[in-house]
């Protein structure tokens, strides 16, 4: 029996294609949502609106995201997507933080805060409303405008730099405590269950003069056990809530944990070594987290802590990794979802790698491309990625 040249050509082409796209290439991830046509769809049928810039999880399997155009996106554990256009009077959304009861706190940028009714808003029942604080404008001198013990709802607050929610649903935020300047100090504050304010860490900058010096840049590193009240936070500091009353703070060179009134560095070292080349894909090579040279990259998209103390944090560009080993093989997704993953993997300009720091203190690479990341549950990281025209959110299982 003779085989036609056409059939032979097809067989050869399929053989070459199979060799180039082995199932062993890349890392297997599971699709949560995206790559479809339905703006309020489910899973692979859902279309995510625009590029999602922030992700937050309330710890119940529900994910919340926000786009640069001010669309709030809710994605439940089954991949059901619901989107709401936020009615913003001024400014843009800077950060969101989801509480266990389904409330999402919304922080606007500085222009939005100055023009708004409250320093921090809340999104509930499909609309925004004031939550905490009244914008006080620029401080005239060092120190909080409203002292500890006062009600938070109507408290006069300096510029709020970041927000988070702890496991008990209490709002955490950083507040500018010095007049405007590159070296203005910030306080880390919490709204207690009775609605009053308490300062957890930070102070006005004792060396404040409106300019950032090398000594002040070194605030990223300090002896472990330093009292929380002696820390100096700056505007670039990002925060996340950890187990119990622990709060994790991300600086431009480190991540440290505040607990029981003192601070301990958990990621980054002055003069540290490179993050180990991860040639085998996610969660491969590792190093002691406090031995590496860490920079979160810009913008600081990701900082989240699970109930066991595991941290996911964005980092700057990586080198020495095998790009093919980190490419996503999207399970349960459409061809469009896979195309988004492939496009994101091929665009190093928009790559925002994500590090995982184990509760035991080892650092390893979870993803080398994608956008914002957060914990979906204690064993799963959710990461967003943007292609040419579509967006997806995938789930990456953390290895034991």
UniProtKB/TrEMBL annotation:
Highest taxon above the source species: Bacteria
InterPro entries named among the record's database cross-references: 6-blade_b-propeller_TolB-like
Gene3D superfamilies the UniProt entry points to: TolB, C-terminal domain
SUPFAM superfamilies: Calcium-dependent phosphotriesterase
Annotated protein name in UniProt: Uncharacterized protein
């Amino acid at each position: 029996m003779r085989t036609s040249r056409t059939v032979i050509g097809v067989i050869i082409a399929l053989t070459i294609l199979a060799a180039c796209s082995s199932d062993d290439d890349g890392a297997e991830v599971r699709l949560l949502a995206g790559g479809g046509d339905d703006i309020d769809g489910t899973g692979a049928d859902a279309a995510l609106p625009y590029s999602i810039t922030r992700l937050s999880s309330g710890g119940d399997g529900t994910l919340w995201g926000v786009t640069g155009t001010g669309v709030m996106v809710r994605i439940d554990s089954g991949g059901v997507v619901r989107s709401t256009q936020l009615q913003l009077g001024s400014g843009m959304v800077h950060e969101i933080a989801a509480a266990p009861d389904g409330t999402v706190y919304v922080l606007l940028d500085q222009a939005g805060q100055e023009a708004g009714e409250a320093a921090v808003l809340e999104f509930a029942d499909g609309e925004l409303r004031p939550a905490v604080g009244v914008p006080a404008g620029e401080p005239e001198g060092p120190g909080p405008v409203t002292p500890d013990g006062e009600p938070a709802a109507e408290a006069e607050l300096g510029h709020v730099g970041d927000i988070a929610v702890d496991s008990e649903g209490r709002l955490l935020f950083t507040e500018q405590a010095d007049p405007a300047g590159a070296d203005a100090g910030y306080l880390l504050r919490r709204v207690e269950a009775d609605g009053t304010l308490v300062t957890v860490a930070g102070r006005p900058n004792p060396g404040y003069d409106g300019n950032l010096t090398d000594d002040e840049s070194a605030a990223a590193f300090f002896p472990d056990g330093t009292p929380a009240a002696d820390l100096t936070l700056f505007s670039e500091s990002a925060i996340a809530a950890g187990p119990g009353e622990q709060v994790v703070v991300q600086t431009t060179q480190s991540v440290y944990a505040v607990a029981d009134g003192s601070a301990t560095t958990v990621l980054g070292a002055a003069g540290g070594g490179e993050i180990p080349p991860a040639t085998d894909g996610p969660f491969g090579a590792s190093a002691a987290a406090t031995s590496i040279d860490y920079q979160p990259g810009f913008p600081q998209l990701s900082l989240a802590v699970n109930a066991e103390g595991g941290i996911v944090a964005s980092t700057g560009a990586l080198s020495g990794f095998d790009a093919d080993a980190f490419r996503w093989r999207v399970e349960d997704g459409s061809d469009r979802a896979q195309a988004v993953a492939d496009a994101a993997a091929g665009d190093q300009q928009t790559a925002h790698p994500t590090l995982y720091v184990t509760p035991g203190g080892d650092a390893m690479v979870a993803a080398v491309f994608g956008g914002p990341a957060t914990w979906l549950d204690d064993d799963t990281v959710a990461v967003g990625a943007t292609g040419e025209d579509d967006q997806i959110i995938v789930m990456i299982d953390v290895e034991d």
